[in-house]
């Protein structure tokens, strides 16, 4: 699973996801992409699960790019621990995704295979997504 090698700070605030994506909104590598159309927090496990769904459907043909990286630590306290006594230890990593962000790109496969692969991947993700291609780049 993806995680940073080192970070400046060990723990992070939860924060809110406001506005639309500033960058990463168009295709840079592949012919087809999976774009988020609502905000959400994607964990490293969800990214890996979506990646596996895409590669399994494509039968390892073509090329895949992951355009998001989980760089925010999420901490949680153990069960049955009383309130107070500080913040819990980091449990997993996640990525804040704004609407308009391209999360995955593929190339070297047909449109029907890419569509089905992205449908399977979007079932693993916690937000609504849409398929974009080089042809329909305007929307």
Features:
single chain, 139 residues, alpha+beta, Aldehyde Oxidoreductase, domain 3, four-stranded antiparallel beta sheet
Give a topology summary:
Blueprint: E1 32-36, E2 40-43, H1 44-58, E3 63-66, E4 72-76, E5 89-97, E6 102-107, H2 111-122, E7 129-133
Helix pairs in contact: 1-2
Word description of this protein:
- It is a single chain.
- This protein has 139 residues and is α+β, with helices and mostly antiparallel strands.
- It has a domain at 32-76 and 88-133: Aldehyde Oxidoreductase, domain 3.
- It contains two helices and seven strands.
- The protein has helices at 44-58, 111-122, and strands at residues 32-36, 40-43, 63-66, 72-76, 89-97, 102-107, 129-133.
- It has a four-stranded antiparallel sheet, with helices on one face. The protein has a three-stranded antiparallel sheet with strand order 2-5-4.
- Helix 1 (44-58) runs antiparallel to helix 2.
- It is elongated and about 55 Å long.
- The chain starts with 31 loop residues before the first strand and ends in a 6-residue tail after the last strand.
- The model has no long low-confidence stretch (mean pLDDT 95).
């Amino acid at each position: 699973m993806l995680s940073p090698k080192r970070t400046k700070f060990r723990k992070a605030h939860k924060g809110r996801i406001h506005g639309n994506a500033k960058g990463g909104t168009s295709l840079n590598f592949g012919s087809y992409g999976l774009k988020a159309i609502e905000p959400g927090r994607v964990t490293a496990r969800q990214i890996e699960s979506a990646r596996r769904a895409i590669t399994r459907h494509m039968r390892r043909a073509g090329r895949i790019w992951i355009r998001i990286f989980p760089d925010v630590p999420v901490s949680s306290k153990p069960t049955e621990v009383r309130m107070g006594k500080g913040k819990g230890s980091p449990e997993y990593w996640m990525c804040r995704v704004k609407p308009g962000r391209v999360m995955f790109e593929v190339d070297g496969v047909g449109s029907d295979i890419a569509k089905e692969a992205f449908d399977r991947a979007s079932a693993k993700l916690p937000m609504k997504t849409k398929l974009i291609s080089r042809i329909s780049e305007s929307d």
